[in-house]
User: What shape does this take?
Amino acid sequence: MNIAVREETLEKQATRLAIVDCDIHPSMRSSAELFPFLSARWREHMQTYSAHIRQALSETLAYPRMTPDVARRDAWPPNGAPPGADLDFMREQHLDLNGVETGILVPLRTGAGSQRNLEYGAALASAMNDWQAAAWLDKEPRLRGSIIVTPEYPEAAIREIERVSSDKRFVQVLIPPRTDEPLGRRRYWPVYEAAVRVGLPIGMHVGGVSGHPATGGSGAPSYYIEEHHSLVPAMQAVVTSLVLEGVFEQFPTLKFALVEGSFAWSPALGWRLDKHWKRLKSEVPHLKRAPSEYIREHFWYTTQPIEEPDNPQDLFDLMGWIGWDKLMFSTDYPHWDFDDPRYVFKAKLDEKRRSMIFRDNAKALYGLR
Amino acid sequence: MARYVVATVGEIAPGSRKLVTVKGREIGLFNIKGEYFALANKCPHEGASLCRGTLVGLAQSDGPGDYRLTRQGELLKCPWHGWEFDVRTGQSWCDPDNTYVRQYAVSVEDGGELLKGPYVAETFQVSVEENYIIVDM
Assistant: This one.
């Protein structure tokens, strides 16, 4: 038979998930949104000189991305704002649609932590934190903030942690993994000390500009696929540095959430470091335990962009080796490599593990109610 | 299997598309160089609204240094992760045996023929003068 159809707008899928999303990127229409939170001195600096970081083009990323603004093509709000810059559209397209009970903001704009002008970086960090509170946290109770700090300028970072952490809506201290030196070096320890003092974990989202080729010692990458992957070995280098420098002997309650840095590498890194440590531990006598034990205890991992092995069970085996209590779901909304909570796992997770990854682990780490 | 009138011919220009909902399912209708194709509006990878993606060509290479772009406008690129599907077959370019998007049969019929059949008009006024795009599902 022939039946005519009723034309309808695309329905929004209902969802029964109530999740914590550990990686949401809020954006802004232009850096002028920060003006109310900058002193006249730094507004003028921004308008006259703007950013200076360790790469040639300071207002863009190191390698051209595959999509404009690194975003999902459908994440551009109809009102013309850039992806992630319109709260109403974020609610409609992500928070409501995907059942986000709590979303943790990871603002990347302005790259405060990578600024060569340390005072400008510190001013940007403060402005980004105040902007987070005013533009997002005040308006949407489901969102939580990340305290942006300047690891190259620990005194300012400590001031910022002390200033902002009294606002309990901020749930972590955010630093980039690419810094002037590997993050285990003692110049960065005051930042960790301050985080421990206020009881917050360190969130480390891939990125930052170290001035070195992204591959880490083997020259500049040729392709985006190559540069995109280089984020993962960079994260491993940071974890190795933090463990071997003895950061966790100094700060036994310090916790790191590695955001968007993958996780499948973690067991192999632990095995490798343990092997070396058995033979070379006299060089690092400050380590009281095997490196894998520090890794197992002090690091949490967000899931996106998740590995997709041909056999989905392989992924679950890996997650078990890392620890089911250490993995936290994230989407990376509105970026192009977004993971959808409905389809991210290609095989069925049992209810308990599902609840841990989609909600409970993040609630425990971040102290969410 | 029932037949659904989803559009009039001429409504979808070559290179463009129309999104419709049939029996609760979202479907994208595409006009590729005068031929019509219908694909489910759901990427088999992570469920994105695939039919809102851009139509691209096929970048091919037999080895480093050799590049050509063919079949322009015949591949649909998912708005999220960029998976590419052949609009003519629904198959994924990178994993054609295992990953494909549901495809529906499409035909074009004139209004005179449609009016002969048992046909319930809801929002479409079918008239003898026009030709219509039909989806079978």
